[in-house]
């Protein structure tokens, strides 16, 4: 299922943001793009997402945009100052006439000024809050899409029921008409054919072309699809299985059809089932 969510929070150090993108996938596949400073938080994000999302390809992006370093958060690195002083002394011996370093030049030297490290506990708490908000928004978006997909599946189920209800009354009549034609052809082919043998062959034929069992199972599977949709929750894999069973019965119906109309119904059912399968693969 598809969805998108993004949350940000401001801190004295800068902006912390989390983005979640979801696209259709039969299984759960998570990809992370995390800045190096926050890489240690990836396992926590993976665990929280897996606990709330069961299906789909999830792209998670965690970023941190720091503000311009303020004076009250800056400290001078004593080791860097000592190293710079040693270098300045050596340079002075090599170039006696060189002007000494000014304070501004010292402060601009790489590594002299450093920002206080991030508070790991506070940072983790902030990311956890961001993750929960983003997950709530993502799940809400996926739920809205799920409702739309559910309506599509229900419409296809209703159409399949209509097709079955139209063809069911035609089956006995179609079998009887086909039996009569078959018996006539048998008698024409073999004039003295035993009537008992004819009845036996017709009975065997009737069993082969009787699709009442397939129609009954189709209705049962359609009932189960609606029951699963009404129950809610993670239903995608179960609906995927049911669509395979519907397709199996539609195939049998088309292959055993005694008339063109019954065969056409089987083909139309296969098309509707395929449309359902396309949708349920996107449902969690």
Provide an overview of this structure.
- The termini are close together.
- The chain has helices spanning 42-52, 78-94, 103-108, 120-167, 170-189, 195-209, 212-231, 236-256, 260-280, and strands spanning 3-11, 14-23, 28-34, 56-66, 74-76, 113-115.
- It is rod-shaped.
- Helix content is 63%, strand content 15%.
- Helix 1 (42-52) links the parallel strand 3 and strand 4.
Summarize this entry quickly.
The protein is of the alpha+beta class and 284 residues long.
Name its key features.
single chain, 284 residues, alpha+beta, 3 domains, 4-stranded mixed sheet, 9 helices, 63% helix, 15% strand, rod-shaped
**Rg estimate, integer Å:** 36 Å
Q: Going across the major beta sheet, what is the strand order?
A: 1-2-4-3
Counted beta strands: 6
What percentage of the residues does DSSP assign to strands (E)?
15-25%
Largest sheet data: 4 strands, mixed
Q: Kindly state the percentage of residues in helix.
A: 55-70%
